[in-house]
Amino acid sequence: MSWPHQPFIRRRTLAAATGLAVGALLPPGAALAAAAQYTNPVIWQDFADIDIVRVGDTYYASASTMHYSPGAPVLRSYDLVNWEIAGHSVPVLDFGAKYDLNGARGYVRGIWASSLAYRPSNRTFYWLGQIDFARTYLYTATAVEGPWNRLTTISTPYYDAGLLVDTDDTLYVAYGNTTISVAQLSPDGRNQVRTQEVFRTPSNVGTLEGARFYKINGQYYIFLTRPANGQYILKSSNGPFGPYTMRQVLLDLRGPIPGGGVPHQGGLVGTQSGAWYYMAFVDAYPGGRVPALAPVTWTADGWPVVQLVNGAWGTTYPSPAVPAPPRQVTPMTGIDTFDGTALKPRWEWNHNPDNTKWSVGDGLTLRTATVTDDLYWARNTLTHRVQGPTSTATVQLDHSAMRDGDRAGLALLRDSSAWIGLKRDGGTTRVVMVTGLTMDGNWNTTGTGTETASATVSGGRVWLRANADIRPGAPRPGTFSYSTDGITFTRLGPAFSMGNDWRFFMGYRFALFNHATHALGGAVRVTRFEVSTP
User: Fold this and answer.
1) I need a surface site. Which of 107, 211, 294, 407 has the fewest CB within 10 A?
2) 299-314 pLDDT per residue, tens
3) 87 to each of 7, 249, 326, 327, how far by Cα in Å?
4) Which of 395, 380, 462 is nearest to 424 (CA)?
5) Listed residue (530, 504, 475, 512) closest to 64, CA to CA
């Protein structure tokens, strides 16, 4: 993750350097057509700073979530192409009141680039990440669905860390920005035994960070990103503490998404048959940073080479040769009626929720948890990633228990936001479209929104719809509509321009909310939510 040593200010984007992307060409055209193929991005949703591992016949990946809770989603796949969200490594962001929206806010803090590893000796998954430049947290679970529990807190903040379980079962962490260090942990993983600087980035390269740590064929590798246009790798034949030599993997490589950035900051993974792949993310705002997959070969002297198509990261490649999956993965989009006793893992709250103010089972009930006129301060806003390149969210909402002053609806949520929803005032309920919700570069609210259109609705039920175009390269439109019968939808308000600036890092999300402006006590019930694509 590209961050400075001061919170909230990202380093200035590095100027593009001269030089060609390092890679070998796959034969285009007929040679690719002979096999089944996959298309990039393999996931068109916002999953950045990917760490990826294989355990047996199953692949797992972890990603950044910043201020969203639960944090650090774990994705699962059987073929590297089709993925599902299986759980979250950080069940609650209990790192201070700001993550509860309690007197302070944690926007663009929280879960940054972190690491996921598996330790065969105790059949345990490990998640490791630093929070607020202050300390490092380590969580463990015997299944990615959880329960995940905090194993330890380490006083050294392992910035952009990569966790390695060595073949002798020793735990090592590679971390740092420009100056790269390696730490050794105690056998139980609870303490740091040793840390040592192992590499200092040459000035002509610039910044390197986003470490991933591997041992492959007896060699130690630290995979590093140059934000936001390059990838480099360090190799040691003399153990985890080096010395290391460096080689460029890619620089200014054309990516697979029109208008998107250079694939970078991901992880390497080997298949059961010995093939290798690199899963990176592509800057693709306004949707966020989305994963792309490319095959990797190795030179005779042990360096990875990304396989290119016509000099670029391919839009399509032959599908990985892996065993048939035991089942189909759970789609990341579709219909949710909020049955069962828990939210499905595709949902994440904006900051930690007040768990006394929501429930599932007979739909999703959101009771007002905050008195505010600012959605960015409202607790219990529930978010869902937008599916690219375009998708539509439709929500069926029972608003019969709203109270005067309540605001409930469906937002396109980021540092510049808009929403369609209901305002209850003076005993009357109106459906409105509100735009102009904004934050500044320090993530303080600069605009709480302006109502741009409205209509009176009767009865206790309404359908709300938001359509989002998240193709990168330019600000894109989001539009809103409503229905009183679930069949005929009426457009409400002007198109909302979704910004494509990277500095908020996370992409736009669909968001369900209900907050009070006068007093607590009201509620809404979401009986159905659906994300669909054209």
Assistant:
1) 107
2) 999 999 999 999 999 9
3) 28, 32, 19, 18
4) 462
5) 504
Mean pLDDT of the chain: 94
Confidence at 35, pLDDT banded by 50, 70, 90:
low
* Cα separation, 483 vs 534, whole angstroms: 19
DSSP-derived 3-state class of residue 31: helix
Strands across the sheet containing 149-154: 115-119, 124-131, 135-141, 149-154
DSSP state of 469: E
Instruction: Please give the pLDDT value at position 8.
Output: 29
**Tally of CA atoms within 13 A in the half-sphere of 210 that contains its CB:** 29
| HSE-CB of 476 using CA atoms within 13 angstroms | 22
**Two tokens, residue 251:** 């620089």
CB 201 within 8 A of CB 219: no
DSSP conformation class of 190: S
Rounded distance between C-alpha atoms, residue 269 and residue 69, angstroms: 27
99 backbone dihedrals φ, ψ, rounded to 5°? -80, -5
Distance CA 228, CA 232 (A): 12
Q: Binning pLDDT at 50, 70 and 90, where does residue 325 land?
A: very high
DSSP string, 65-86: -BTEESEEEEEEESSSSSEEEE
Q: Residues 205-209: what's their mean pLDDT? A: 98
Q: Give pLDDT, residue 5.
A: 32
Give, in degrees to the nearest 5, the angle at Cα 128 between 263 and 141. 115
DSSP-assigned beta bridge partners for residue 182: 174, 196
pLDDT single digits (tens) 107-130: 999 999 999 999 999 999 999 999
In whole angstroms, what is the distance from residue 45 CA to residue 388 CA? 6
Stated pTM of the model? 0.93
Taking Cα atoms as reference points, which of 72, 52, 64 lies closest to residue 1? 64
- Is the CB of residue 293 less than 8 Å from the CB of residue 508? no
The phi, psi pair for 45, rounded to 5°, reads: -140, 170
